[in-house]
Automatic annotation (TrEMBL):
Compartment annotation: Virion
Domain Phage capsid-like C-terminal: 121-397
Protein name as it appears in the record: Phage capsid-like C-terminal domain-containing protein
NCBIfam families to which the protein is assigned, alphabetical: major_cap_HK97
Predominant location category: virion
Length: 402
């Protein structure tokens, strides 16, 4: 008896035969001949028949997997830790997730649907797959690779404004020193909000039907890319909760102190030196620049008194270029050099900015919206927030007013 994978391979061959018939007729700019029409109709019937067999066999395979799950042990009996059960459940959720992406929740068996559907009728991305997607994000973004990250379980995070912690030598109980309280006299209570980020991925109907082994990798890549660019933009220039976005560190709401350049239309070496030394020394040692590519091109021509370039290209793949000995990260959402514009940032981003992730990535299958194009859409919802947690760790270079 063939497996569901073997039947999918047979169906893929049928689809390819149908495609070759229509492509040959289109190439010759004619309609199908009588013989071609009969063959095409026969292939259509084969396609429907195989589809029914695949759905029936997949349901049987899912039931067999559930029946094979070991019975839970009683409280007073020896327990193996449930490792096999957890693995089987994770595999079942993953299998149900891919079935939901292909067929939609309404066409799934109730027991499969319950594994991946949330209260809002959305498809829950399995936790292990969501972890793999999150692991891929730092390779696609700037902020994920330089900022700190934290997982949360709420829609907002309470934070209070704090000064830097004060330390000193000597015994406090004998009044040998005095420490300044790091909490301001009238602390301000503020919140960082977790916002909804939506992405859209599309896949061809034939590719979705015929993909089994590669679907897992396609999901990881598509979902990660759908979120990466939007995250980078929002964490850099996002308008905050009022705009349903993270707080961008380049915005006034981020509260990062600014350094004003000497000129309005060009950056000098002195401007970049001023930006570095305006940052407290404890944050300079891990400091880095974030600037757009056009601005990096401009500073790449700056030289020192001995006519040596201050910008140095990276000699190792995956490592950034440097300027004045500090890494340079390209963030294209930062403004180009212009009068009054905020054009560069410097500092310890790991200490100064934090990204908050709330688990529970979900998907909605859009089967009708792109049907005329032969595509199926997946609307992805991811919950993420971001905020400047330590403004003193960063500095922004603003050009002089015109």
């Amino acid at each position: 008896m063939p497996t569901s994978v073997e039947l999918r391979q047979q169906r893929a061959g049928v689809v390819e035969s149908m495609r070759s018939i229509t492509e040959r007729a289109e190439t010759e700019n004619r309609n199908l001949t009588g013989e071609e029409r009969q063959t095409y109709d026969r292939h259509e019937e084969d396609f429907r028949s195989l589809t029914e067999r695949i759905e029936r066999l997949e349901a049987e395979e899912e039931r067999a997997a559930q029946m094979a799950e070991p019975i839970r042990r009683g409280a007073g009996r020896p327990d193996d830790g449930g490792r096999g059960t957890d693995e089987q459940r994770a595999q079942q959720r993953r299998s149900a997730f891919f079935q939901a992406l292909r067929r939609g929740l309404p066409r799934m068996a109730p027991e499969q649907r319950a594994l991946v559907e949330n209260a809002a009728g959305e498809i829950l991305v399995p936790e292990d797959l969501e972890t793999e997607i999150m692991r891929a994000l730092p390779e696609l973004t700037i902020m994920r690779s330089i900022a700190s990250q934290r997982s949360v379980t709420t829609n907002r995070i309470r934070r209070r404004s704090l000064a830097e912690v004060s330390v000193g030598w000597g015994k406090l109980e004998t009044n040998e020193q005095e420490l300044v309280d790091s909490m301001p006299g009238t602390p301000t209570e503020e919140f960082t909000y977790v916002e909804d980020l939506y992405g859209l991925a599309k896949v061809g109907e034939d590719e979705l039907d015929d993909s089994d082994v590669n679907l897992d990798a396609f999901i990881r890549d598509s979902f990660a890319r759908a979120c990466a660019e939007a995250e980078d933009t929002a964490c850099t220039v996002g308008g905050g909760h009022a705009a349903h976005q993270p707080v961008g560190y380049m915005t006034a709401e981020g509260g990062v102190p600014t350094v004003t350049a000497a000129g309005a239309t060009a950056i000098t070496t002195d401007d970049m030196m001023k930006l570095i030394y305006a940052t407290p020394k404890q944050y300079r040692r891990n400091g880095r620049f974030t600037i757009p590519s056009g601005t990096e091109l401009a500073i790449a021509t700056l030289k020192d008194a001995d006519d040596r370039y201050l910008w140095q290209p990276s000699l190792q793949a995956g490592r950034p270029n440097t300027f004045l000995g500090f890494p340079v990260e390209n963030q294209e959402d930062i403004a180009a050099v212009a009068a009054g514009a905020r054009v560069a940032a410097f500092g310890d981003f790991n200490a100064g900015y934090r990204i908050y992730d709330r688990q529970g990535m979900t998907v909605k299958v859009l089967t009708e919206l792109y049907a005329e194009d032969g595509l199926i859409g997946w609307k992805i919802r991811k919950r993420v927030g971001g905020d400047v947690i330590r403004p003193q760790a960063l500095r922004i270079l603003a050009m002089a007013a015109a």
